[in-house]
Amino acid sequence: MSRRLVVIGGDAAGGSAASQARKRSPDLDVVVFERGRATSYSACGIPYWISGAVESEADLIARTPEQHRAMGIDVRIRTEVVGIDLDRRVVHWRDLAEGGSGVEPFDDLVYATGSVPMRPPVPGIDATGVHGVQTLDDGAALRAALDGDVSRVVVVGGGYIGLEIAEACRIRGLDVTVVDMSATPVGTFDPDVGEFIADAVRKEGIDLVLSDAVAAIETDAAGRVRAVVTASGRELHADLVVLGLGVRPAVRLAEEAGIPLGTSGGVAVDARMRTQAEGVWAAGDCVESVHRLSGQRMVVALGTHANKQGRVAGINIGGGYATFPGVIGTAITRMCDLEAARTGLSTAEAEAAGYEFVTAVVDSTTKAGYFPGAQPIRLKMIAERRSGRLLGAQVVGREAAAKRVDALAICIWNEMGVDEILSLDLSYAPPFAPVWDPVLIAARKAFEAVEADVRLL
Amino acid sequence: MSRRLVVIGGDAAGGSAASQARKRSPDLDVVVFERGRATSYSACGIPYWISGAVESEADLIARTPEQHRAMGIDVRIRTEVVGIDLDRRVVHWRDLAEGGSGVEPFDDLVYATGSVPMRPPVPGIDATGVHGVQTLDDGAALRAALDGDVSRVVVVGGGYIGLEIAEACRIRGLDVTVVDMSATPVGTFDPDVGEFIADAVRKEGIDLVLSDAVAAIETDAAGRVRAVVTASGRELHADLVVLGLGVRPAVRLAEEAGIPLGTSGGVAVDARMRTQAEGVWAAGDCVESVHRLSGQRMVVALGTHANKQGRVAGINIGGGYATFPGVIGTAITRMCDLEAARTGLSTAEAEAAGYEFVTAVVDSTTKAGYFPGAQPIRLKMIAERRSGRLLGAQVVGREAAAKRVDALAICIWNEMGVDEILSLDLSYAPPFAPVWDPVLIAARKAFEAVEADVRLL
User: Fold this and answer.
1) Distance from A4 to chain B by nearest Cα, in Å?
2) B343 contacts in chain A (CB < 8 Å)
3) A411 vs chain B: nearest CA distance in angstroms?
4) Of A163, B87, B172, B432, which is the most buried if we count CB atoms within 10 A?
């Protein structure tokens, strides 16, 4: 009998693992259990489907169950794995559509359950009109609700997903308020960069309620959302509430089965995406990754990591060799006309990791200043004192600003110092950059700060 | 008596050297001789001034003579240095405006003479109606000529500057033909990328005459340009000819003075921008740089290098310490709606440098494929066989495509292998990239090519 791989979860990580393993090892039986009705879809695209920028659900799906099946992968949608028995080497499943259940044996297992959205434990959280935005089903439900009689939306959480959903609702012509506990939106940015974002969001007509939290959701007699009440006592009228608080790893099944978690709460994996249970692999939003700068283990829910980790697991299962080398916290978003991106450590993260550092902030333009269409860009660098090593960078600006973060991410990845960064041979022509690219200007300024600081040591 | 620095050339390199030296060493007397009437201007911006995208000459000037003077720098415009006497430590100058001449002593000298445009040695090259585009004066003359009775323009040279000028003329509504000796335009790109560029240029209605050279420029009875005749016998009617063949380093003065040149024909400098003559520094288009990958010395005329090299020379002259670490051949351009960029070695350059390599070409999109405004992007990687080290990369595409070259340049700078590149934590969100950024897809494909090749070794 041939070897059997069972994959729990058919989205980015599970789908990649299944297809890589199958590709490398054509004799392998591959069974994928997916609780939802779709596989391999772009959850990150849901806000744009809500806004109407992306027209159809089908656009978000990279690979359908049928496409997986055509590659010889046995995909079972609407089927939930409800238990893992590591001793007997089987998973227990339940058919959510038809109601049946069963047992599937495995030799190798990929745990790719993804994440579950955070729900504040407040009164009214389960009221009609409170929506999540994590799955395609969530997206479809929210779209349908927004097509109804809705005029006021409160978004809980002002991170990436919260602001993207807020913008989508604004594009649909609704009144939108975002509530967030941080003093500036997207708390993973430093406050001086967050201010830039807050201004842009407010200019779009989105209300921001900051340094405040949701205390309760009030409902009408029919159990429908009526208002959101905050910790500070504000009452925000709402026909609809969207939860955009981020996610936590879906680890319940792993815990129950005895697959060890790491200190961060995600499933612990090694560089090859092996868990500490024999023959069990894990990938995607449910695992913890190593931050290459701080050395800390953390859970980063992001489709690009999920794809890479799934690929690594699949190659290894298929008999190859691949490793996932960790993350450095790169993220990017577009809010209204503003682009924002970060990589490495923020000042708060650098402090928490024990670093001392200097910072530099520059305001420049995306193209030569005199060139038509040149847009403002603000770039912040965080450099370790004495060594000058780049620890983190943040970019905000208009069109063509934020993708510069990739250059900065690669500098951090390679542990470059700001003195070397300012000498880099980056591309220059007036339609693309000033003669000193903003990246180089920021490195110059950060280097001057490092030098000034060294004199004090 | 205080120390005196004389700078020959007041553009990017000379201006930067003068201001850095002065800033670090306020007692230094700084005299800058500039043959033209402007200092510190963006020669790269001239095509956009020709096209009308940039409105006025003043927009191109980063720092005027008056601004330099306000910093205590004695700028003498329209004054040409005609000789350097290293024994007597003086330069001989001539006032081009008033006709006088004189001698200026120096302790340190910065040689920043820039470059001279290449002129094919063909009959008629000095005819009325043949224009260069190197200096502001060239730009002003060309603008004035194009405002006259001109309908057909031939651009000699299909490199960056040639195509930029061709586009500028096309925007002005003229018939434009570009003649170039290469089989595809911008010969520093590989042919498969150059084809992409050729298509875009032709779609703009610009005629390309490739694999051909200018043999003669025919004139009418009044000595005005009438046609360009090519080596293959084509006769291209022209009211105006623009020479966009690139430049060579302006080293005549240095040669006459006994300042040694390098093998590439540029002034030889060390990492601190010192020439081999005591107390003489050089920077900008006239010097040779080290290519960090091939180890070869080469002249690269580019404003961003000139600025950096001038800064390095100025810091060192001012008593500080700075080095210029070399170049890796990064370049970018926009032609019509197409963006194109390269870094590292092309296949031809890699061969010439003795490398064996594999290549990978991918066609992807600038944003998630389903996202509105996603544009095609083609990315080519050249990776060393066995090691997988990235040797070169080329990018072409529409809006937001080409600046990705910076990420690739930093990979090359750090001698990264394609296997590590495919794991990089690059930014992802649907408005900015597919979940596998084109850079990562290309690295994956290049890595597969490296692996397949290793099996043959």
Assistant:
1) 26
2) 425, 427
3) 7
4) A163
**Beta A152-156 vs A175-179: how paired, if at all?**
parallel
Residue ranges of chain A with pLDDT lower than 50? none
Cβ–Cβ under 8 Å, residues A213 and A231: yes
What is the reported pLDDT for A1? 65
Whether A406 has its CB under 8 Å from any CB of chain B: the answer is yes
Alpha carbons A61 and B403: distance in angstroms, whole number: 28
A160-171 vs A191-203: helix axis angle to the nearest 10? 10
Q: How large is the angle between the packed helices A405-413 and B405-413, nearest 10 degrees?
A: 10
**pLDDT score, position B235:** 97
- Residue A335 is predicted with a pLDDT of 85
- Quick one: DSSP state of residue A57? G
Q: Which residues pair with A364 in a beta bridge?
A: A377
State the greatest distance between any 2 C-alpha atoms of chain A, in Å, as a whole number: 72
Please give the DSSP secondary-structure letter assigned to residue B260.
Answer: P
Cα–Cα distance, A255 to B335 (Å, whole number): 57
Residues of B within 8 A of A430 (CB-CB) are: 42, 44-45, 48, 54
Bridge partner residues of A287 (DSSP): A267
Q: Which residues 8-47 in chain A show a CB within 8 A of chain B?
A: 12, 42, 44-45
Domains of chain B plus CATH, in order, are 4-116+248-317 (3.50.50.60), 130-245 (3.50.50.60), 338-454 (3.30.390.30)
Question: What digits encode the pLDDT tens for the residues B150-174?
Answer: 999 999 999 999 999 999 999 999 9
B340 and A CB contact within 8 Å? no
Quick: pLDDT tens for B37-78.
Answer: 999 999 899 999 999 999 999 999 999 999 999 999 999 999
> Residue B117 in contact with residue B134, Cβ under 8 Å?
yes
